[in-house]
Write a structure and sequence with these properties.
Layout lengths: L2 H17 L7 H12 L4 E2 H8 L3 H13 L3 E6 L2 E9 L1 H18 L1
Antiparallel strand pairs: 1-3, 2-3
Helix pairs in contact: 1-5, 2-4, 3-4
Length: about 110
């Protein structure tokens, strides 16, 4: 798929998300949610910052927004109280399923 076709596909996904009135997410927020929702954990703030190449404060800000939407949850790691574990919630899984549906429609 060429660059123009790829951009047109992404535009269709975004238009469908707007039509469904899904919450606006930044690229960082969406990347964080997709990573936690699609890759096996455990996920830590430090590990997410390293993997996604953003600072720990940027991860924390994105987590604040996604936790506020009820899509990600944080908890202290019982094995290392200095570490914070991040996991996707049922609400986050629902959002990802809806986004996946929209992506599938845009691909058709």
């Amino acid at each position: 798929m060429g660059a123009d076709a790829s951009l047109a596909w992404w535009y269709r996904v975004l238009r469908a998300a707007l039509a469904e009135r899904l919450p606006d997410l930044t690229t960082r927020q969406l990347a964080l949610l997709l990573h936690v929702g699609l890759t096996p954990g455990p996920h830590t703030v430090r590990g997410l910052a390293e993997t996604l190449h953003f600072s720990k404060p940027a991860v924390t800000r994105a987590l604040d927004r996604l936790a506020g939407l009820g899509w990600l949850a944080r908890a202290r790691d019982p094995r290392d109280r200095r570490s914070v574990l991040v996991e996707v919630t049922e609400g986050g899984r629902g959002f990802l399923a809806e986004l996946g549906r929209l992506v599938g429609q845009a691909s058709a």
